[in-house]
Amino acid sequence: MLTFAVRRVAWTVLVLFVISVITFFIFFKTPGVDPARALAGRNPNAQTLAEIRAQFGLNRPLPVQYLLMMKQLFVTRSLVSYSNQGLLVVPEIAAAAPATLSLVFGAAVLWVVVAIAMGVAAALLRGTWLDPVLMVLALIGFSAPVVWVGTLANYVSQGKLHDSFLFSWVPPLGYTPFTQSPSLWFKGLILPWITLSILYIGLYSRVLRANLLEIQNEDFVRTARAKGLRESRVVARHTLRNSMITFVSLFGLDFGALVAGGALITEVVFAIHGVGYLLWQAFTNLDLPTIMAVTVFGAFFIVLINALVDVAYAWLDPRVRPT
Amino acid sequence: MAAIIEQVEAPADLRPEVVGRNPWALAAHRLRRNRLAMAALGLFLLIVVVCLAAPLYADHVAHVTNPLAPNLNGTTVINGKIVPLMQQGGGTLKLGETPIAPTWDPYHYALGADNLGRDVAALLLYGGRSSLFIGVASAVICCLIATVVALIAGYFGGVTDSILSRIMDIIWAFPLYLLAICIATELLTHSNGFQLGPLHVSSASLWVPTLIIAFVFIPYVYRPVRGQVLSVVRKEFVEAAIASGASTMRLVFSEVLPNVVSTVIVLLPLIIATTLLTEAALSFLSIGVQPPNVSWGTIINDGEALLYTRPWVSIAPGIMIVLTVLALNVFGDGLRDALDPRAKLRVEG
Q1: How far apart are CA A275 and CA A259, in angstroms?
Q2: Quick one: average pLDDT of B94-101?
């Protein structure tokens, strides 16, 4: 177990290093992209360019430039945005994080609860008409583009029906911090939560149902039934618990990807100023430092979550532990 | 796929027990018995045919000469009266110009006009061509590259396998949209297009989103296919081929490849479904299809501005995407059940 953890950590560090090097090269060393020119603004003269190069260390050797960039990202946190030079990139990302976390956490709670309910119900009701109905619903949820679901939700809740009793509680688009008004925070996030979770409810309930059906035929479930356990206990303690292994590892990956900017479609559609929204704005301004910072932090977050999932997995299930 | 099925189909006069148990024939038989999957395949093919017929619709039914060009001063006919496409003072505020609403008349702007006075119904079909092209082409490219890499990694094993698998892990570690945004930033900053070997690709070309999407999904196909290669390489028939002195090329292409093709075929429709959804998302963020081309994603994006006055501009392409992706997912499920009944394959996304 210890060697496994050590090897996993070493590999994680290597991946993080490679990712940061790749991102550095993509954004600052491709032909045709000159950071000094981007910083200098319109029609700079040669002297200004030279000054900027010296000031930002752009005339130093490549490894030094890479180290400077990483220092600006992680130590001094002084990376400057191209589009607005008064703006520091790292604090900007930190300020956007609570909105993204609120969105993703809420959606995650919703999709886990609903997906477990739907998956278990479909597996238990196999052979009745409810199983196919639930699975068709899951398939539709799994097939609907998030952009479109969000757009429809906006049309319904902000359009003509906004004045009807059904949707009059929906606040205007945007994000209200929890500290400012908990009730507005909650109301404003309900539709984004639903929009974001529909895809995952579809995916997870299908996966869970398939796993449940597979495990129902295992010997230990038959043993549990033969011992005379109640059906509810067999499902809760034996089948469901063992079916959750795939569910949990999928959840780790998806949750990580969403926090790291994967929720940007939902954020853009509902004008929630989170990390994904920041990334999208940076893209429309071609603000390379911000894109790079979000990419590096996002990829780091995902790699760390993946490593945690792997270690937790090996701890839960000794069979997958490599020797 | 259809060609393969027909080649192996047994003559009708042979009794079932006499027919050789060719796995492809068995799979085709199982697939044909799955009515739901066949209906889904039919729906998908219908959508493809209808979208391919876009110029026919534009020329002979809707009479739009250039469906992608702005048509702000155009007119159409409603109930025998000539009406301008852009109406003054529409919407709730009675200000500015609003394009006409859906007429539900296939000859005259059935789904209304968009912000530029273009026929939404015709746009929908032309957009479908781009979306389907990107979805199918990127899925095929992705599966081809992933299969070749998986064959190399699985067959040669050792250091080759470790290096290739680690590269795939790194692509996998980048969040999907982040990776797509990175590549798109890179490609779109070269506004004159860029050189890809001997090919010149302009930055408005459909190949840009196609290649981006193909690239980001390579690890999703690579992982299951590599697993399959690893298990096939250890089988006795490969050993027998080695013993009879087969060359490496022969081993890889005629012994291993045919045994992993079914895995790739099962993944293909599910990957097309995923790439279609990704195209819509990227085009919505304006990283995908660039003007003057349109796709279902860009039409949804354009419709955002008209959402509260002319919702059909956004709703219609969404319905097309849901139908197409749903058909592909249902057919993909059926294909998996037919080709590989004890499968553990799954597309995660």
Answers
A1: 8
A2: 65
Q: Does B200 touch chain A (CB under 8 A)?
A: no
To test the contact with chain B by mutation, choose from A26, A142, A143 the residue with the greatest count of B C-beta atoms within 10 A, namely A143
Reference B5, options B40, B50, B41; nearest CA is B41
Average pLDDT over chain A reads: 80
pLDDT for the residue B79 = 65
Tokens 């200004």, residue located:
A48
* Segment A195-217 mean pLDDT: 87
Residue A30 has pLDDT above 70, yes or no: no
The residue among A285, A260, A289, A261 whose CA lies nearest residue A24 is: A289
| Closest chain A residue to B330, measured at CA | A139
pLDDT at B91 over 60: no
The tokens describing A10, both together, are: 């070493």
- CB-based burial of residue B243 (10 Å sphere; 0-12 exposed, 13-18 middle, 19+ buried)? exposed
Q: What is the DSSP letter of A74?
A: I
Average pLDDT estimate for B300-305: 82
Residue B126 to residue B135: CA distance in whole angstroms? 14
Which of A13, A140, A151, A277 to mutate to probe the B interface, most B CBs <10 Å?
Answer: A151
pTM: 0.82
Q: State the DSSP string of B137-181.
A: HHHHHHHHHHHHHHHHHHHH-HHHHHHHHHHHHHHHHS-HHHHHH
Q: Enter the DSSP assignment of B57.
A: I
Mutation target for B interface from A148, A214, A286: give the one with most B CBs within 10 A: A148
Whether omega for the bond prior to residue B292 falls within 30 degrees of 0, making it cis, is: yes
CA distance B246 to chain A (A): 34
For the beta carbon of residue B14, count every other beta carbon within 10 angstroms: 10
| A26, A144, A155: residue with CB nearest B182 | A26
Single out the residue of B267, B314, B328, B318 nearest to residue B142, CA to CA: B267
Q: Which residue has the higher pLDDT, B339 or B219?
A: B219
Instruction: Output the six-digit token pair for A137.
Output: 């619903």
Question: What distance in Å separates the CA atoms of residue A38 and residue A40, rounded to the nearest whole number?
Answer: 6
**Which residue carries 């099962």 as its tokens?**
B266
Task: Give residue-wise pLDDT tens across range B4-48.
Answer: 333 444 445 545 555 566 777 777 888 888 888 888 899 999 999
A46-to-A36, A37, A43 alpha-carbon distances in Å: 11, 10, 10
Token reading at B32: 């044909």
Q: Does residue B11 come out as left (phi exceeding 0), alpha (psi in the -120 to 50 range) or beta?
A: beta
Interface check for B91 against chain A (CB to CB < 8 A): the answer is: no
Chain B CB contacts of A139 under 8 Å are: 326, 329-330
Please tell me if residue B190 touches chain A, with a CB cutoff of 8 Å.
Answer: yes
A291 contact residues in B (CB cutoff 8 A): 181-182, 185
What number of C-beta contacts closer than 8 Å exist between A and B? 138
- Residue from the list A151, A261, A265 with its beta carbon closest to the beta carbon of B307: A151
Asked if B37 and B335 touch (Cβ cutoff 8 Å), the reply is yes
